[in-house]
Fold:
Amino acid sequence: MEYQVIDISTWTQMGEGGNGKTYVRHDNDSVLLKVNNPPRCDEATVKQELEVAKHVISLGVPTPRVFNMVRVGDGYGQLVENIKGKKSLARICADAPSCIAEAASTLATLGRQLHTTPCDTDYFPSRKELALKGIEIIELVPEEDKAKMRQFAESLKDETTCTHGDFHMGNLIISGDGNPYWIDLGWFGHGSAMFDFGHLFLICHVYSKFPQACDIFHMEVEQLKTFWDACVKSYTGNSDHAAFDALAGKFAPLDICIRNVLVPSSSEEYKKMFGGVIHSLVEKFY
Structure:
């Protein structure tokens, strides 16, 4: 298939996150060029992201409109709606730390709406099925740990409401006029809302120990913990959320297994790191 070829030198970089960069042209700032970091800038991955976004919009979930897939250098990108005056919740927290609790409450409120939205189970994958697949193929994880995760995953109900898959403060943006939009929807699926909170738990309580994570989310370790606390209090309506935290801790290693299905790692260093994280989580929460 022929795609429009984009000369990136004629575009101005607007943002950068863990997955890639965004650009605009000076003569048309209504369209945003999104370019993933390698290796996720291949044709199949970008095409899948574009199709996912279209299907998410059809569910009534607020997300920027998507337009076309384009060729950028040796890879591919996509043209999407540029939400004017947008800021991610992560950037809002970084710019005004006093707003962390409010931003966390916003993620909780929009999360509850998302997690009660019926999903298209014919198109989107089951988080439970992805987790079970991931448990089987994950490397450098003791079989005893796999058995415990497998037993837990198999006990879960086959829920049919939406999950974001990459649920965190960087993937909910607020427009200049106050409207919210979900972004980075490539891992969208259906299942228990706790899959999303397992992912957020990893970010706020595990990955936060790595400087790269703090750089990506523009927040310090203690700020991420504060965000988690405020988000969960708002989501559950309960100031004592120890049981919720423990359940999120059980879902966290499943999230790593799912990630390994969606984005397999060829790096022995990363395999060893993720294996160690899974083992420590299973020891603590199972």
